[in-house]
Write the structure tokens for this entry.
Amino acid sequence: MIIHTSPLPAVDIADVPVTEYVLRHAADSPDVVALVDGPTGRSYTYGQLAGMIASFAGGLAARGLGPGDTIALMAPNIPEYAVVFHGAAVAGVAVSTINPTYTAEEIRFQLQDSASKLLVTIGMFVDTAKEAAEGTDVSDIVVLGEAPAGTVPFTDVLGEPISQVPVEIESHIVVLPYSSGTTGLPKGVMLTHRNLVANLCQIEGGLEVEDGEIALAVLPFFHIYGMQVLMNGLLAAGSTIVTVPRFDLEQVLQIIQDRKVTRFFAVPPIVLAFAKHPMVDQYDLSSLRQVFSGAAPLSAELAVEAGDRIGCEVVQGYGMTEMSPVSHLTPIGGFKPGTCGVTVPNAECRIVSPETGEDQPVGGEGELWVRGPMVMAGYLNNPEATAITIDPDGWLHTGDVGVIDADGHLTIVDRVKELIKFKGFQIAPAELEALLLTHPAVADAAVIGVPDEEAGEIPKAFVVLKPGQEVAESDITEFTRGHVATYKVIHHVEFAEAIPKSASGKILRRLLRDSGAS
């Protein structure tokens, strides 16, 4: 067995609940601004944030919610996101974070699977939330901001502040983000206090966030990258976080210039805009210390081009929801174009040949396996998928093919897993294939990811029609549009005589990709 370890020194993992760790500077710096709503300027200091979290926790407890219960949170990036997330954690309640662009059908699945008893959202999503909540365990829809009739104002939930409810740090589930893992349908990823705190400790030294730094949070908090690296990681560092509900290049550039933002966390399409868009030259971005890209591969050429243009390092890391999420990062000054950086402290990696099962030495290519305290507790209600992803020795099989070089830097070169990465969001082919098979004219279907300069990958469907049926590509697009979030909609369709499959019935996606699909 060949185990690759981190070149960074080991760290002590704090043995505390996640909120205690995240708010560790609140008592010493109560007047420092923790969160600012970029569009409106509404803000909370660390003292105010701590107070709101304790009050929301008390309100949940007063409603009879505690350990063993789950609430759902469906909102864009706003300061109150941290209040709900950590208020639930203090009350011992798990949070299932939901993508606000989901359809009611997709939201209902997550509400039912997570057994959520409360859904917290904002006014513009209330109609979808109400539709999604039908037939679930959700008793109330709580609205941040102005609450329409039939919903509960967030302020009505606030109660007498309470301290952290006793929890077992190693096993108590804090959050249930949903991930497709390496294959299949979305699954609830069970992340414990230990998982979250461990990964915050593991990335702290590599990120080297200094006192007084200001970060811009464009990446969504419902996604593990935005949740942990931005929201929790930067709050734990005592930074000021400016939130925006969605990415708008002009607004982002203006905020970086006006607020002297020092940290910006991105995905490759945003880095592409920094490198290519003429608007960038109209703004002063000299305050930026580092742009950190994740969630999808970033080419060496694009990283260098963007970095040269804006005058700071543009680096990347690697992770998965199942790893809380970071297993590799690039420390400041450690930029190596095209790589995802080095293994985080207290974690181990193996590069294993998918063909032979043998460990690969430095420079060898194989599937990346990772072990460490940040690896999830498992998938909710799905021990079979958990056993496929994490082996008996604790190694998480990432599904990505990589190489670790002599400097300890990881480069991802291919994918074993079937997932499609659209601007960092996961799309499970199996989910779209199951949907296509419900179309009355479709006999069989397969979905693969094809390259796209802006999005990274987009889904393409191969469709076999039933005898005598005639369907246009636009019909398939409109059919998917009615059932899934916008980024999952299929815009490219190729009609086929048959779907290539193995003797066991498994779709041979590599044959579809190698057939010249584009």
